[in-house]
Amino acid sequence: MLDLTKGPNAAMMGLAGRTLQAVRGAPLTIFMYHAVIEEPLVLPDYCFISADDFAAQMDWLANRRIRVLPLLDAVAAIEAGQLKSPTVVITFDDGYLNNIEVALPILQRHGFPATIFLTTGLTGTEQALWPSRLNLALQATSRTSVEWRGMTVALTNEGARRAALARLQEAVKEKAGGAPGDAVAEIEAALEVPVDPPVARTSPFAMMNADDIAAALTSGLINFGAHTLTHPLLSKLDDNRLADEIIGSIDAVEKLTGQPCRSFAFPNGRTIDYDARALDHLAQRGIEATVTTVSAPNRKDTDRLQLHRHGVGPEMSLLRYAATVYGLPLDAAVGAVRRLRG
Ligand SMILES: [Zn+2]
């Protein structure tokens, strides 16, 4: 396969990117990570990428001399029309302990900054985020199928369990997006496994605590934003809970860090997952940048309270990662390089 990430191909992709840039301005790419892990999960999950893949991506950014900025600096620069070359912001959602134990040392090799968005209801607890609980429950159960709210999901082998994890994650969002933890408790009970079991700090699903946050702040590379208390889909909440989830998590971040909380990430982050009520709360509370999961580059006119992000999962090749940084859809990038080569 044509490797655009190395040697002359990288230079040509850079040239293709610069050609587009001359027309549209340099793109700001905000990457969304969740967990970075040393050992593979028993049941793989799109939110968990290997330390090797993460390190390769950071090496690529460093080798190509791509500028990596803190979120708010990048937003200020793009609004001021000061982005002259493709620029990257690194973010992590949810607040996994492995962000500090595994990802931060890799960031430190390059001096790359990052923002971590905390689901503050879980910070400093032994509880796992609801998708992690589903993962643990599907690993632990000895049942060969599960029924939940009219669905029957087969669990007969590892392949079936992998498919069940993805299907149940989507079903929880769709049927119980406002209270996902309660929905997962029903599934845990149906699977005949402990409900909301504690996780050890050695677990890939463990969340960080106040000491971990303090250590991250000492590095000078990490800042923290809010990501709600319990990770509901905000558009499914009534006004009171909506306010609690947003304001409560911003207050908690400020308490945990001793610093103003200036950024926020919407859970699930599609445009249907939040609404004008949420945007009003965030603006009134003085939040300066908010990130979605809409996959697109950011340009000068992108709303800083609805910034676009590209999720990075275990399936993302370095080629696609590189094309994303240059603001090139992968297929267009390959075509552009072929044309440049004649
Ligand atoms: Zn999240």
Helix-strand layout with pairing:
Layout: H1 7-24, E1 28-33, E2 35-37, E3 48-50, H2 51-63, E4 67-68, H3 71-79, E5 87-94, H4 98-110, E6 114-118, H5 130-140, E7 145-148, E8 151-154, H6 158-176, H7 180-190, H8 210-218, E9 222-226, H9 239-257, E10 263-265, H10 276-284, E11 289-291, E12 310-311, H11 318-325, H12 330-341
Bound molecules: zinc ion.
Could you please describe the fold and organization of this structure?
The chain is an alpha/beta fold and 342 residues long. The chain has 2 domains: 7-126 and 205-341, TIM Barrel (Alpha-Beta Barrel); 130-190, no CATH class. The chain is built from 12 helices and 12 strands. Strands 1, 4, 5, 6, 9 and 12 form a 6-stranded parallel sheet that branches. A two-stranded parallel ribbon has the order 2-3. Strands 7-8 form a two-stranded antiparallel sheet. Helix 1 packs across helix 12, helix 2 runs parallel beside helix 4 (98-110) and helix 5 (130-140) packs antiparallel against helix 6 (158-176). It is globular. The model has no long low-confidence stretch (mean pLDDT 93). The structure holds zinc ion. The site of zinc ion has 5 residues, from strand 5.
